[in-house]
Amino acid sequence: MSKKHTFNIFTDGSSLIDGSFYEASSAVCVYYEGDVVFEVGKYHRGGTNSLGEVFAVQMALDNITEFLDYNKLELKNVHINIFSDSDYVVRSLTEYVNSWKRVGRESKWISSQGTPVAHQEIIKHIYYEYLTNNKYDIDIFHMRGHVGEKITIPLAYAKFCKKNKVKISIDDFKKLVKCNHQVDKFAEYMRVNKAGIVKRSGTSKWLIWFATLEKENGLIRIRKRIR
Predict the structure, then answer these.
(1) For residue 227, which of 81, 91, 86, 67 has the smallest C-alpha distance?
(2) Alpha helices in 134-169 (DSSP H)
(3) What is the fold of 5-223?
(4) pLDDT in tens, 85-124
(5) Handedness of CA 91, 67, 215, 129 (dihedral sign)
(6) Contact status, residue 93 vs residue 126, Cβ threshold 8 Å
């Protein structure tokens, strides 16, 4: 029986409102056994924080699917953990969607306040493409951002375990915090530098080829193969 490979995916959104000017970014960092496999980021001119956060999850799943296919890894042998600091995004994908989906994918989804669900096409894509079939083994967790800066590690650890109904050691939690700091920084980098779309490779010991750069419609895509 093949080993179940676990990928930890950290997502984040960064935003700025200056008068009537809005901008946001989405960032994704993918880890395997503590090593960065790849990172993906996108800048949204005129975007909001909620757009940055929810699009990051879609971008994560679209890209990990492409990555697994490229490296010939079967989905049945893969487990994906997604960590987001957006309570709205996590609850939308694990709770609220159970009410919204009743009207079907093609109908307009309406929130409990009677307004259209924000960014519902992105949420529908995530839900129907990745969360409603048996092909993908995915868990979604809420992970506070900026742990150690805005909230202490012990308090963040207690809240993480309680909110997600999980039990992990505080040492393992500290490893998650370190990974989450990286995606926080990447999201800010994408927004501040208005970086468009960026994909970059990591340092995973799985990667056996040096990166080759392929220019695809102006996007520099970094490719590596694992086996």
Answers:
(1) 67
(2) 153-164
(3) Nucleotidyltransferase; domain 5 (3.30.420)
(4) 999 999 999 999 999 999 999 999 999 899 999 999 999 9
(5) negative
(6) yes
